From TrEMBL:
InterPro entries: PepSY. Transmembrane segments: none annotated. The keyword Signal applies. Residues 1-23 form the signal peptide. This is Peptidase YpeB-like protein.
Length: 194
């Protein structure tokens, strides 16, 4: 059972896709005007990205499961779709014990592309280490938050990650529902800073 209400914001398609922790707010979106010279290019780039995402054969949740299966006991800390690459991929960061793994998963086949050496949790900043320690202790996982966000919005998740706000660690999921991008913020039970 999730502790908080779900917050859903519609994001206009003219926005560049951002990782969930840096999603654009409604007031920032209002600052973008059709007169911006880069706006037409951004709209086309976003449309191409979303078309690529809709054509993907592998879901974001499946990409997370593939990456987690590569390292026994790994859990996903961040995932995003990248349709600007060829082939389109999901970028998945997983955590296993004291290591962070970054994997690229082909969005059409589910194949792991390339190999990344792990980085140490010790190489991260204090806030990131703290967030990952809380994530590791939680019963709920990012995959659970993605499932809730997709069900709540009747959409398909395009990215997900962690964000700390006012001492609370939240899952932030961006979902494509129809032609709208929606940001869903979920606070899992037990995520408050002690």
């Amino acid at each position: 059972m999730w502790l908080l209400a779900t917050v859903v914001l519609a994001l206009p398609l003219s926005l560049p896709l951002a990782s969930p922790a840096h999603a654009v707010t409604g007031s920032e979106a209002a600052a973008l005007t059709p007169q911006d010279s880069d706006n037409a290019l951004d709209v086309h780039a976003v449309r191409r990205e979303l078309d690529s995402f809709q054509a993907a054969q592998i879901s974001l949740r499946k990409a997370m499961a593939i990456a987690e299966a590569l390292h026994f006991g790994a859990i996903t800390a961040d995932v995003s779709f990248d349709g600007a690459t060829e082939p389109a991929i999901y970028r998945v960061k997983t955590m296993q014990r004291d290591r962070i793994w970054q994997h690229s998963i082909d969005a059409s086949t589910g194949e792991v592309i390339g190999g990344e050496a792990p980085s140490s949790l010790a190489s991260l900043g204090a806030e990131d280490r703290d967030n990952l320690a809380v994530l590791r202790a939680l019963r709920h996982r990012l995959a659970d938050a993605v499932r809730v966000a997709e069900r709540t919005t009747s959409g398909k998740a395009i990215s997900g990650g962690l964000m700390r706000e006012r001492g609370k660690l939240n899952f932030v999921i961006v979902v494509l529902a129809g032609s709208d991008l929606k940001e869903v913020i979920l606070e899992p039970p037990g995520a408050r800073r002690r």
